[in-house]
Amino acid sequence: MSAQVHIGVTLLLLISCFLSSTQCQHRPNILLILVDDLGYNDLDWRDTRLFTPNIRRLAFSENTVQLANSYVNHLCTPTRASLMSGYYPHRTGTEDGVFLQMEMSGVPTDLPFLPQSLKPLGYNTYLIGKWHLGYCKRDFLPTARGFDSFYGYYGPQEGYFNHSASVYNRAIGKHVDGLDLFYEKNGISIPDFTKNGVYSTNLFLQETMRVLDSHPRTNPFFLFLSFQSVHAPLQVPSHYRIHCPFLGHDKKRHIYCAMLAALDEATGQLIAYLKQKQLYENTIIIFTSDNGGDPELGASNFPYRGGKSTIWEGGTKTTTFIHAPSYIQRFAWRNE
After folding, report:
1. CB atoms near residue 137 (< 10 Å)
2. Where is the Sulfatase N-terminal domain (predicted)?
3. What are the pLDDT digits (tens) for 212-225?
4. Total domain count for the chain?
5. Which residue out of 132, 163, 231, 323 is catalytically annotated?
């Protein structure tokens, strides 16, 4: 069973519980953290040369369930489309690959997305980070698919600091760079030209905290934090490399390790923020990746064969866990 099916089933079971059981007093907040192109071997409990202590503590908490047989699709768009819709890629029209920059395609609008299903249950829904499910038509935009607001980028990849992507312009016969960083609400997209030089991992963390600061406490939230990390290009503030002293001989793996350290720091800060704002106890945190890592760009899927874009386990088996302080520990006795 794929990770997106696992997650969907989990959410449905929880929602059913809140609708039908007197033991469930409050609907939980849901924080979905999706890492881009994370290899199976790209966490420090598998490769001890890496530095991901905050993610490790979350993964091995007594309030966490790890999905040991979690599989996704081999590329970004198919997994994200399935995660949002609950349908396999051949039903969403995404089985052949990913949506490219300026491509007119999008996931069919007759397929309801997860936030659209959560809205009738009283959830406020937010998306921060990567979308990659179509944007050349207003009906494809995140706020048309159930999200109250969106801040991030629409396409497959861009620079971590300049937030720009390269697109081939047929009229002039060469590639040109264009900004892909937008704030979206009520179907209106506003470009953000003010964040040049701000590393996207830190930017998306700050935006997440800003959104939650303004979230009404009377409603539960579904927040989809779709990190750019650790997708290409290999870019990171240099001070994070101090966490990777054993990888200096491998330039790509060294930078990749530093990108993971930045991601881990952001995760730790987000958990601390949730605790400070007294949101942590009633928040279900789901951590996963959209596909395997690319070994040509510093990732590792050991011990599995292949990587991103392949259907071997290196491209499809991922690390997925669900952390829920108020819900998982309560049922721990069932496994004793």
Report:
1. 12
2. 28-328
3. 999 999 999 999 99
4. 1
5. 132
In a domain, 139, yes or no: yes
142 domain residue, yes or no:
yes
76, 163, 243, 257: the active-site residue: 76
User: Does residue 215 lie in a domain region?
Assistant: yes
Instruction: Answer yes or no: 132 catalytic.
Output: yes
Average pLDDT for runs of 10 along the chain of length 336: 47 51 67 98 98 98 93 95 92 89 90 94 96 94 97 96 85 82 92 98 98 96 98 98 94 98 98 98 96 97 97 96 83 46
The yes-or-no answer on residue 244 being catalytic is no
Instruction: Provide the CATH number for the domain around residue 148.
Output: 3.40.720.10
Instruction: Compute CA distances 48 → 35, 43, 205, 247, 307, whole Å.
Output: 19, 8, 26, 11, 20
Compute the distance between CA of residue 207 and CA of residue 143 in angstroms, rounded to an integer. 17
